Amino acid sequence: MKAKILIARAVFPEVLERLSQHFEVEANQNDEPWSAEEMARRLHNKQGLFSSANERISAELIAACPQLKVIANMAVGFNNIDLEAATRAGIMVTNTPDVLNETTADFAWALLMAAARRVGESERWLRAGKWQRWRYDTFLGADLHGATLGILGMGRIGQAIARRSRGFDMQVLYHNRTRLPVALEAAASQAQYVGKEELLRRADHLILVLPYSAATHHAIGAAELALMKPTATLVNIARGGIVDDAALIAALRQRRLAAAGLDVFENEPAFHPDFLQLDNAVLTPHIGSASVPTRHAMAACAADNLIVALSGQIPPNLLNPQILQ
Ligand code: DGY
What we know:
Rossmann fold; 2 domains; 12 strands; 34% helix; globular; binds (2R)-2,3-dihydroxypropanoic acid
């Protein structure tokens, strides 16, 4: 008998097709997000869940699904899942690391360049028919080349971002829970480890790449923003909640910070409406990993994890190996 799985959001047709060969599948191809109750109702008799970063997999949901054996999250981040509760219940949890490192690093640079060189703001101005003549001071921005790039959170995506700075001849500073081995620092454009405060004070451009958890909630708030240069750019491609959005809005509005490039927000997709009033913020809808090949690779990786785990083997990207003991 085939195991039963639930696919919580729409997926590529070939992934649906592949999973249907292995499992009895209930899929949400209409892509209407389900309420917690609806999710529990549909998941309670399933052995596997294919989720995105947008479903909250709480301890309550886990308790309501006694047959569940695997949660395969199609994201590298897994703060949407109560990992401890899943582990206590003996449920394997997997994510999709590595396949998105380079694409997400590319996008961090897209946001940084757009924010520092005022691409969104000047394009809106041009489209509004306001371009009458050349002026020496039209949309002056900040340089990237030769500047100091700060990276907060130096995992694999952070290192991929750092590598790209070579072409811009930048000095790279980083802060992380633990310092990287010297060989990895060298490969990451000779990145130099500094304390968080020094990072904030010295960076001309700061990119946030740290995972979200209770410990990193509002890691960038009013106090941290006050340490940054007024000419600096802040980029967040990590998770909403790492930045205190109200404090960031105040800093951008008062030009205590020059610009921000933001792909993630507190309470997204219902983000703070005041962001829309700020010309110095470039705003994108959580698309850091959204290239065609990478989203296909993430979906395939999540499907692999689910298939391997429900065949009784250890999936490649198991986040809670302690359950195997
Ligand atoms: C991730 O993989 O965590 C990205 O943010 C996509 O959700």
